[in-house]
Amino acid sequence: MSQENLISPLAGVNPGAKLGSGVVVEPFAVIDDNVEIGDGTIIRSGAIIRSGARIGSRCEIHPHAVIACTPQDLKFKGEDTILTIGDRTVIRECATVSRGTASKGQTIVGSDCLVMAYAHIAHDCVFHDHIILGNACQVAGEVEVFDWAIMSGGTLVHQFVRVGAHCMVQGGSRITKDVPPYTLIGRDPAAYCGINIVGLRRRKFTNDQIFTINDIFRKVYNSGLNISDAIRVVEEENEPSKERNLILNFIRTSDRGIVRGAID
Length: 264
Prior knowledge:
- It is elongated, with a radius of gyration of 20 Å.
- The chain starts with 5 loop residues before the first strand and ends with a strand.
- It has four helices and 29 strands.
- Helices cover 16% and strands 27% of the residues.
- α2 packs antiparallel against α3 (227-237).
């Protein structure tokens, strides 16, 4: 069988779908019209790819996942929207990813992401790159998740929340406020529990960078100052850096406010 012809005769592939080179479609998978799938992507048995899906190269969609499903939003009136998935992203069994609504027009899942079994990504979410979404996580509409964030199994994320880069969220957490970058979030209700030092070391952050991040969050969460005063102190005492600027910009642009500090 040639690389151009790896589609099972037991799969349902609409003639209007655009499939790249070397795409594998296993038995009982369904691919609708108005779908684009990049080179080398694998669609496993029983997966359903709905109209509006734009899937990149070398992705893997596992059995019974539903991609670009109709948004679970009562305001959705059947408008023409899409779901875009980057390259090398893996969607595991029974996960669901909705396409966009008129609000933003598309849902985006970036490259090199892992969406584990039974997870749900709702309409108009934006997931950047290298994100891990644990088993049975449920992410509501218009949530934005930044690079290298990890949400452990069973995490619930309220609509419009932002989850910052390089953070780690404990399994079973209920996230209703923005999660600042580089942080470790746990407890019930969810709270700041320190910085994600293990993740930062894995990402090759230097000791100086980690010290700076920890010092900034010590001022934000442990100094007894309100957020505005803490930001002012950080600006006065911490030299400009990529990490400082990212943290301050994230906090300043938070519409929902950031997660609270831990209370012992």
